[in-house]
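Entry 14. Ran structure prediction on the chain below.
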Amino acid sequence: MSLDESELQSFAEQLYDAWATKTPVEPITNDTEFDTADAYEIQSRVVDRILDDGDEIAGHKLGLVSAAKQEQLGIDEPIFGYFTEGGILDEPVVQTDDLIAPRLEAEIGLVLDEDVPAPVSVTDVLSATSAVVPVVEILESRFAGWEIPSAQDVIADNTSAGKVIVGETHSDVTDVDLRMESVVVSKNGEVVSSGTGADIMGNPARAVAWLGDRLEDVDDGLEAGELVMTGGITAADDMEPGDVYHVEFGNIGSIDVRAE
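Output, structure tokens:
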């Protein structure tokens, strides 16, 4: 089902207002069915409103990179969105009062130093990568209680983009086996999740190659200078004030995060 212009604009305004006011809304597909193309159009309009406020795109982000998550939300491919400079935290401290319902997950980030035009191969991605960085994403859903019935809702909500913490360590891609790169997330001294790069479509670089090809469908592409967040390696963990996290990657560094 395709939405008309007034519906596209109305849903985009709802999600932008939820983002701006930190007031959750009900999932769109509770009342209206729409396809993936419409979902990305809504996302684009929401992101444009954020940019109109003076923010700037910092990079692309992937979501639903595992087959299990895709099956759960009824889609046969990953999804993608954007994160902005305003969403990158200068310090690893998350102010939970500034968010609706934050969740933490660990990701591998690739910093690109050249454009990567489609069609994109894994070799193209690796050749264009200037650094591999540890990343913590603080996910944020604009939907009440993280009730997300469909992938289309997640896409429209800019793949639950919230805040981003980038580690200080920059590793040369030739020194890192992206598939075998491990991560363990500890919360208040106890391990809560773990994973490896192979959980990201078998190889995070493969996920980025998929992204580069898919972006061509929306007149976009992978660009020099951006950070690509390759998708959550670990399950997302609910954050509460006072929580302290230690995110330890196998070779590319670690990040400590505190929730206030």
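The helical segments are 5-21, 36-52, 67-72, 122-128, 151-156, 204-215. Will compare against last week's run tomorrow.
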